[in-house]
Design brief:
The protein is mainly alpha-helical and 173 residues long. The protein is built from 6 helices and 4 strands, in the order H-E-H-E-H-H-H-E-E-H. The longest helix is centred in the N-terminal third of the chain and has 24 residues.
Length: 173
């Protein structure tokens, strides 16, 4: 018995039942999700493919930070006269992505890597993909960092910084 797979299957079924019910009850075609379960990409994909909603937005700050974000949005709507009009979407709250966390300068990254004794190289854009593919083909792990960090709990799962390893190398645990 695979406990994780079983929990995932039950979660997907519950999410689908809830979203189908919500769609039938409201008739709305857009869905906004928040909270820890809302970060389940597999379940979200199934909800989108189910066809009850045309668009799905997942608010990435699933933890306590999301409560603060929601409170700030509530105040913004209370203070903004446009928010009282149905259908108004003022630019004040148009989230353009989850990359709202800190950014690091290249020199700071290199200094920190050197300080902890990490073995690393810096590649230009032209050779980056080629070097990464070669390292993975040789069974090596690759650390990848790019741009700003994400906001909220979602940041650990999004590819702006990742540890990557070829699947066949993982068999040697």
């Amino acid at each position: 018995m695979d406990l994780a797979a079983s929990i995932q299957a039950v979660t997907e079924e519950v999410v689908l039942r809830l979203t189908r019910s919500l769609a039938a009850e409201t008739g709305l075609r857009n869905l906004c999700l928040a909270g820890g379960v809302a970060l389940n990409c597999v379940a979200n994909g199934k909800v989108l493919r189910d066809g009850c909603f045309d668009k799905i937005f997942v608010q990435p700050a699933a933890g306590d930070a999301g409560g603060a974000l929601g409170a700030a949005l509530a105040v913004s709507h209370a203070e903004n006269p446009l928010s009282d009009r149905k259908g108004a979407t003022p630019k004040l709250d148009s989230m353009q992505g989850a990359y709202l966390g800190p950014a690091y300068e290249q020199s700071d990254i290199e200094r920190r890597l050197l300080a902890c004794g990490a073995i690393f190289s810096v590649a230009d854009d032209a050779s980056l993909i080629e070097q990464t593919a070669a390292a993975l083909a040789n069974g090596q792990a690759v650390g990848w960092h790019q741009g700003r960090m994400e906001f909220g709990r979602a940041r650990s799962a999004i590819v702006r910084y990742s540890a990557i390893r070829a699947p066949q190398a993982c068999r040697k645990r």
